[in-house]
Amino acid sequence: MKQIGYLLLEDGTELKGNWHGVKKTAVGELVFNTGMTGYQEILTDPSYDEQMVVMTFPLIGNTGINPHDFESARMHAAGLVVRELESEPSHYESTLSVEAYLESQGKSAISGLDTRALTKMIRSKGVMRCLLTPEKPTPQDLNGLKAYKTNFGRVDAVTQGARFFAGESSFHLGVVDLGLKDGILNQLKRLGLTITCFSPDATWDEVKEKAIDGLLLSNGPGDPMDAKAAIQLVEDARGKLPIWGICLGYQVIALAYGAKTYKMKFGHRGANHPVRCIQTKKVKMSAQNHGYAVARENLPSEIVITHENVNDTTLEGFTIPKDRIAAVQFHPEEGPGPWDYHELFDTWLRGGVSDA
Asked: Which one from 247, 268, 273, 334 is the annotated catalytic residue?
């Protein structure tokens, strides 16, 4: 017999569906992802910390969970919302069903909902706080949800901190781990780099002690304005060595130069977002996962825009040539998504930043 569960939104919308995973109530920020595949990477991406993910593709779980496609050591999403959850996956690498994985992580999912209608609701009203619960919601639950103080985006809660990886190359890259995906780390290892990972509160004095040749700020969750230590680090390090940024790291660099960021209505999350290179006019597909963007208005003069989103013209990349800086809002490492922008790692770390 199927267990019943409920999804309660802060606007009072209540939806009933089938419950999966542990019988425990969870609170999160309701967002949607437009990818057709990659649910395993999505669930374990630290940038989804405390977010409840609606998958717009109707069938989730048919390939199960495998040992290779994790983006971190644990599930960061607060929960999963799907149209249909496959209980008997079929794939030669599968070792667990999604439901079994949820139970192992102490997390839950709800299925049987009209995720297309739910996605349209988010697009219309914006992201919302929500409650995923195995019990019928009460008026007190709604009041508590409305009063809930969101704590989304604690980079200190998702970082893996200081780590070192020896590589064949003499180039020593420092990576500020704001919620670093394994996919980014794998791309850096592919280049044979020697890598030192720093915690989100690392100072310039700590970084320069390691004699690094370049600095990369990773992806991560939350409001970039909250990453104050990382912003200060960029302010102290700029002009002294090449600096690169991905997603949250891109936003942090922009803030360090005096740009402004803002929270988007529903963000960009998925594996099929078209991005235009300003210089070449070429459009490539990208993987994206962000709820904040860098504003075009009052952009500091030293920031040169390199990429923009085809769908809504939001900024997707920039360089600061005088300080050897390049950064992008999208995820060139994919995980999941297209490989179109893998070349950026080679461009940045083998050819400098001028052609980014």
From this structure: 247
